[in-house]
Amino acid sequence: MATPAPDIEAMLEASVKTFWKRGYEATSFDDIVTAMGVSREFVEDTFSSKEDLYVAATRWYIRNYGRRLLSGFALHSNCCDAIRVALYESVDVLCEKDAPGGCLLSSGLLETSNQDAILAKEIEELHATIVTAISRKLFNCRECLKEGTDIETVARFYAAVLEGVASQSGNGASKEQLYRVVDLSMKVLDSYRIS
Amino acid sequence: MTARDSIPDDPPEKVEEIFDKCVRVFLLKGYKSCTMDDIAQAAGCEPDWLKERYPTKSELTAAALRWYYIKYSSNIRSELAIHQDIYAAMEATLFAFIDICFDQLETGRGLFVRTFIDISNVDDTVLQAYQELQDGWEAQILEKFSLCRSELKNPEDAEILACYVITVIEGLYELVKLGKSREVMYKVAILSLNVIETKLKYGQPDRHSG
Questions:
Q1: SS percent in chain A: helix, strand, coil, step 5
Q2: What distance, in Å, lies between the first and last C-alpha atoms of chain A?
Q3: B9-to-A42, B21, B47 alpha-carbon distances in Å
Q4: I want to staple A94 with a disulfide (CB 3.0 to 4.6 A). Which of A169, B7, B27, B89 is the partner?
């Protein structure tokens, strides 16, 4: 009887959790192989290096968690509700039981100055996707905002909050604290809304 | 700091150069798999010279974490001491933080504090060094909010507002790394201060310097 082929999706999920728990820098190729529960040979045949694996895991993460994060944008026509829901969703994702104490999307790699660093591009693209989604939502709701609202800066502010929440989650902030921080951050958008 | 963290004869630029190179080696080769020899080679120094100062990779990493943390904290401490009211203090802190990040980049250095903190998750020596940094910039911000409670509509908001400012700073740090300009960062920082303004008893006059 033939051995069933390893489930690539499950392997990527296992690698995401390992990267998330330990951080890219502190995770070795062997750590990933152990977490995946498949042979080292299979992993080496599938992924050429730790960076290659990280890129695949990042793409998987973006598709699954990133899509979940941005799904709230489509569900809410009101920009405040949409942004609040997306930020809450990010807190939920970051504070999930299986993903404590770290953030997958390590930007440390942006500093390695490697021209071929596909990963750095992936991280930048994810960030750009988020900023674009927020900007678009704000633009669509512009009739509710005061004239002269700097939509781009507001979008970047919420991208910063998202990044900050990820770091704070890694620093050990609780879900309740992060929800309250999100609520506070919404006062920025409130200040631009036409009451 | 331990006695070996900094040999008096080593100029700060040299020390920081080593820390900057060591984290690049960690990122490229992996923290666990790289060796002190790899780091010495990247830093352009003799392995024995490096090991005399930092006997192990863990001690080198712990020293680097302390170095960067103290660098950021001392700048922020100065701003917090100069400005008495909470709004001005936080405005100056955010601007100082942005300036430190850009100064770091403009001198060819990376922004690696987060990377060292990540490593503390898997190295007990680094974790201990991180936990000992009780007077880091986060604690200073919390302390400033505590001292300025009387300026807030609700004094109980001091802790969560400090948490908010720390979150904004962490977010600004990541945006700088993503290549946003200094001007963009200042604009985001000013915007973030709206939250503090709404929490003040007497509001805040239009004083944004930009």
A1: 70, 0, 25
A2: 69
A3: 51, 20, 17
A4: A169
CA distance A6 to A186: 44
Q: What pLDDT, on a 0 to 100 scale, did the predictor assign at position A98?
A: 56
Which chain B residues touch A149 with a CB distance below 8 Å?
none
Q: For residue B190, give Cα distances in angstroms to A43, A139, A185, B75, B120.
A: 48, 21, 13, 19, 32
Contacts of B128 (CB under 8 A, 6+ apart): B62
From the number of C-beta atoms within 10 Å of its C-beta (0-12, 13-18, 19+), residue A155 rates as buried
Say how far apart CA A130 and CA B205 lie, in whole Å. Answer: 33
Q: Give me the amino acid identity at B87.
A: Y
CA distance A4 to chain B (A): 32
Q: Give the 3-state secondary structure percentages of chain B, helix then strand then coil, rounded to 5.
A: 70, 0, 30
Rounded Cα gap, residues A172 and A143, in angstroms: 39
Q: Is B160 on the interface with A (CB under 8 A)?
A: yes
Which of A157, A158, A185, A189 should be substituted to probe chain B, the one whose Cβ sees the most B Cβ atoms within 10 Å? A157
Is B195's CB within 8 Å of A184's CB? yes
CATH architecture under which domain B12-199 falls: Orthogonal Bundle (1.10)
Q: Where are the domains of chain A?
A: 8-190
Farthest CA pair distance, chain B? 61
Give yes or no for a contact between B166 and A98, defined as CB atoms under 8 angstroms apart: no
Element at B118 (helix H, strand E): helix B113-120
Which chain B residues in 37-56 lie under 8 Å from chain A, judged by CB atoms?
A: none
Q: What is the pLDDT of residues A34-72, one digit of tens each?
A: 988 888 888 888 888 887 887 788 778 766 766 777 777
Cβ-Cβ contacts under 8 Å, B29 against chain A: none
- Domain positions in chain B: 12-199
Q: What is the CA radius of gyration of chain A?
A: 19
Residue B210 has pLDDT above 50, yes or no: no
For domain A8-190, give the fold. Answer: Tetracycline Repressor; domain 2 (1.10.357)
Tell me the chain A residues in contact with residue B68 when contact means C-beta distances shorter than 8 Å.
Answer: none
Q: Check: CB of residue B101 under 8 Å from CB of residue B176.
A: yes
Question: Does ipTM surpass 0.90 in this model?
Answer: no
Tell me, what DSSP letter sits at residue A150? -
